[in-house]
Write a structure and sequence with these properties.
Nitrilase/N-carbamoyl-D-aminoacid amidohydrolase; 2 domains; single chain; 643 residues; alpha/beta
């Protein structure tokens, strides 16, 4: 099973200007390498058979004849292969020349796609030699003994994907041909290019490819001419870019005189899932329903036994990627939380914000958000009422961290023990206090929530919820207990990101004591602390021992919610992402737990409080996720059991 992945390759061969025989030999060598790696579609640069920089040699009949003869040899070479090959070549057509991409498979030319936009400025003089797609009338040409369609509006259908082609400058146009091709159904766009090098141009190119792949919700495979092209006036250093819906999968630039072969899997299932949800894309596509398009069917692609996934799988998809943008992304998320809370405080005219502080990750992030929000509003932090509510399972470590953090942030501190109230409640309902069951635990959570709500009423305040996205997904909250608040600032922040944001605040804080306190909180085992500590006074009730590792659950949640992937595919991705960290049996166990809890706990999400959306995944019943509380999980659990 390929799970919707299509293995593609962007190739940059070494070339000799005007030496078709040499150039095709290099192309054949890279096809062999790609075929051995299970590549299904390989793309070479613009005019790769002749080389791009032939200039007036394109008017020489010998060069055109050599180009066609070596193409015949390439067709024979690929006759026994399923791999689809896309190469660039000049083609004589309608009393002129067109700069074409030739699509080859199993000894046949499936189509010739002409370049639409010809650059004729600065160092480029393409209109001197070629006609653009708009200058010709679509039709067939006899080449290599085959009648082949010449059209820029060709859509190639394989058993696993549809793809279209554009050439170099086409991408620079205000409306690139790929915009229409993707609206007509192309999942992947291949770009054969001869982009010359200049300072700053590479970054601009990456932005173009990223933007077009995001706008068209497609895979985009770009390859550009490299070593061997003429350097009379410009230099060509090969570039290969493979993007998926705006995100780079593999991006390389040639730094030497060697050939390049960049192989990666594009997730077509993910792209189609994104398009199904994007009504703007579908509305735009409906405008082209009568547009002419040549549909070309291809033969089957690679044998499944030859498939090995070639792409990086991020084990922590919610955490911003490392690099210069990480701090910006964390700041952006934190600011969204603060702006949401600020609006709610101003709208309700609340004088205080009431937060339950446990010394754990979630309440710490909520408190940090409150502190920054009050600073934004010009309010004294004394208007933040942090209430620590020691219970039967509270440990010295979490209690000390809770008190210290509140003191360091300069908020109002209240300490209200829940022990006596809970014991009275147990006595009232006839519950044995030594029986540490769900009643014992939930009574404490509800007692804490009642205290927070009543304290907010006393002070004209707003109860700020601390529960996070991961807890909502798993239902790891007490119904009408910590499940409830007046505004949940962490509602769309998953546990892995909560920890990361706390560490980010620590890293950017100049106060050494605050920094050390936050890092110790981040290092504390996650626990609701509803069960008494062990004999050493340490946390006995560890959440991840009970419901599973949050990094796994966040991974499952992201791919289920973001793309609607099949459990089998999510399991496969998890096994690769967490290889060496979690065993396949462990992943199988916890993904089953995830689906069971996700379905069974929907009733808690159906009445969850308001909270700001900070990313692409949220479980708000008013926004991104609407699900009946009594939907059955049987089909999902059966799939998990069959893994």
């Amino acid at each position: 099973m390929n799970y919707g992945f299509v293995k593609v390759a962007a190739a940059v061969p070494s070339v000799k200007v005007g030496d078709c025989k040499f150039n095709v030999e290099q192309i054949e060598s890279q096809i062999i390498q790609a075929n051995n790696q299970g590549v299904e579609i390989i793309c070479f640069p613009e005019l790769s058979i002749t080389s791009y920089s032939c200039q007036d040699l394109f008017f020489q009949q010998l060069l055109l004849d050599e180009s066609e003869m070596t193409l015949i040899g390439l067709l024979n070479f690929t006759r026994s292969m399923n791999i689809i090959t896309i190469v660039g070549m000049p083609v004589a057509f309608q009393d002129g020349l067109v700069n074409c991409a030739a699509v080859l498979q199993k000894g046949k030319i499936l189509g010739l796609v002409p370049k639409t936009f010809l650059p004729n400025y600065k160092e480029f003089y393409e209109k001197r030699w070629f006609m653009g797609a708009r200058d010709i009338k679509e039709g067939n040409v006899l080449i290599c003994g085959q009648q082949v369609c010449v059209s820029a509006n060709q859509l190639f259908h394989t058993p696993t994907c549809s793809f279209g082609i554009e050439i170099c400058e086409d991408l620079w146009a205000p409306i690139p041909p790929s915009s229409n091709l993707t609206l007509m159904g192309a999942d992947i766009v291949f770009n054969l290019s001869a982009n010359s090098s200049s300072a700053g141009k590479y970054e601009y190119l990456c932005n173009l490819v990223s933007g077009q792949s995001a706008r068209c919700i497609c895979g985009y495979v770009y390859t550009s001419c490299g070593f061997g092209e003429s350097t009379t006036d410009v230099v060509f250093n090969g570039k290969t870019l493979i993007y998926e819906n705006g995100k780079p999968l593999k991006v390389l630039q040639q730094q030497n005189m060697e050939e390049m072969l960049t192989v990666c899997d594009i997730d077509v299932e993910y792209l189609r899932s994104e398009r199904r949800k994007n009504t703007t894309f579908n509305n735009a596509a409906s405008m082209l329903k009568d547009a002419p398009v040549q549909v070309v069917e291809t033969a089957g692609l690679m044998n499944e036994s030859n498939r090995e996934l070639v792409r990086d799988i991020n084990p922590h998809p919610f955490i911003p990627a490392e690099g210069n943008d990480r701090n910006y992304r964390c700041q952006e998320i934190f600011d969204i939380q603060c702006e949401g809370l600020a609006k709610r405080i101003k709208h309700t005219n609340c004088e205080t914000a009431v937060v339950g502080i446990s010394g754990g990750l979630d309440s710490t992030l909520a408190l940090l958000v409150c502190a920054h929000t009050f600073d934004m509003l010009g309010k004294s932090r004394r208007g933040i009422i942090g209430i620590t509510m020691p219970g039967f399972g509270t440990t010295d470590r979490t209690y000390t961290n809770a008190i210290r953090l509140m003191q360091l942030l300069g908020i109002t501190i209240r300490e209200i023990s829940i022990k006596d109230a809970c014991l009275q409640h147990f006595n009232d309902i006839g519950h044995d206090a030594d029986l540490h069951d769900v009643t014992y635990e939930n009574s404490q959570a509800r007692e804490r929530t009642q205290i927070l709500m009543d304290a907010a009423n006393q002070t004209n305040g707003l109860v700020v919820g601390t529960g996070d996205l991961s807890e909502l997904a798993l239902g790891w909250a007490t119904y009408n207990g910590d499940h409830m608040s007046m505004y949940g600032v962490n509602a769309s922040v998953p546990k892995t990101l909560v920890r990361h944001l706390v560490c980010w605040v620590a890293a950017t804080n100049e106060d050494k004591t605050i920094r050390e306190t936050l890092l110790d909180i981040a290092d504390t085992p996650i626990s609701p602390e509803l069960i008494p500590a062990n004999e050493n006074g340490e946390i006995k009730q560890k959440t991840e021992d009970l419901v599973g590792p949050y990094e796994l659950h966040d991974f499952f949640l992201y791919h289920m919610m973001r793309s609607g992937f099949h459990p089998r595919k999510i399991y496969m991705l998890a096994c690769r992402a967490f290889a060496g960290t979690h065993s396949e049996e462990e992943i199988k166990h916890w993904i089953t737990v995830f689906y069971r809890r996700f379905f069974n706990q929907q009733f808690k999400r159906s009445c969850m409080p308001d909270g700001p959306k900070v990313g692409s995944v949220t479980l708000s019943p008013r926004g991104d996720w609407r699900m009946p509380s009594d939907a059955t999980s049987d089909a999902w659990i059966d799939e998990c059991n069959a893994l």
